[in-house]
Write a sequence for this structure.
């Protein structure tokens, strides 16, 4: 791959200011591993403090509202997270789709708001264990992604720079057991084909597709060796610099890319 692997930590609802030392350690380590693009999505409250100190990593948000502003108690807009220093936002994570009832249409509206605010987006998709067992995983992912990503007519000109897709099978998140390399390879191939159909050969081939779901230092190298895997979205293992940078190191191995 011409582009650097993209390794993103999603801290979810973990982290107070006591975690800033971990973010600093991640930033310092990232300066020594420039072959990999390292990013962190902490809780909203830590975006600005991490952004202020970071020299190498980029900082992002885990969600944003679809409106520019207004009477939305407890919500935060794309412009607000950008103002705090966020360069990207994770959208459509399964924990928001299920925990907050976010529909594909809402996720698409959030994507439009984020892109308009100048942010990059990481668009998540993922099927449940039940959907996979019933043999409908591929059809589900195609439908979910197609309805969540910007429609071709609304996509930004530099979409390959602005959009990353994350495949995160729900049954692999936080379970300690990642999807098999065969399952990852199949689904990333399906997603690549969909991106080409939607955005054309040139742009569709350039959009990065990253995998998430129980990525750890000891399984990262085999996952990164799968065709069409351009990085990882990491939950639990991104909470310490040691394990997170173990994953980033595996992504930077020349034999994998
Ligand atoms: P885990 O790495 O903890 O399985 O979480 C994956 C995830 O949901 C990242 O967004």
């Amino acid at each position: 791959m011409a582009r650097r692997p993209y390794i993103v930590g999603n801290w979810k609802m973990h982290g107070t200011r006591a975690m800033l030392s971990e973010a600093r350690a991640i930033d310092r380590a990232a300066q020594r591993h420039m072959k990999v693009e390292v990013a962190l999505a902490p809780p909203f409250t830590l975006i600005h403090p991490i952004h202020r100190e970071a020299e190498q990593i980029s900082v992002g948000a885990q969600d944003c509202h679809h409106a520019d502003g207004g009477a939305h108690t407890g919500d935060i807009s794309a412009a607000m997270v950008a103002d705090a220093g966020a360069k990207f936002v994770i959208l459509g994570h399964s924990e928001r789709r299920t925990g907050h009832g976010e529909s594909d249409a809402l996720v698409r509206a959030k994507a439009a708001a984020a892109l308009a605010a100048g942010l990059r987006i990481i668009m998540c998709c993922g099927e449940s264990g039940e959907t996979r067992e019933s043999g409908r995983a591929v059809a589900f992912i195609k439908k979910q992604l197609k309805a969540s990503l910007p429609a071709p007519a609304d996509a930004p000109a530099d979409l390959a720079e602005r959009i990353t897709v994350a495949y995160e099978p729900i049954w692999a998140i936080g379970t300690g057991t990642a999807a098999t390399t065969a399952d990852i390879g199949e689904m990333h191939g399906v997603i690549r084909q969909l991106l080409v159909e939607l955005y054309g050969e040139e742009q569709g081939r350039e959009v990065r597709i990253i995998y998430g779901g129980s990525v750890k230092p000891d399984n990262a190298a085999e996952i990164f060796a799968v065709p069409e895997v351009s990085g990882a979205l990491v939950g639990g293992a991104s909470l310490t610099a040691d394990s997170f940078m173990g994953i980033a190191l595996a992504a930077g191995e020349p034999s994998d890319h």
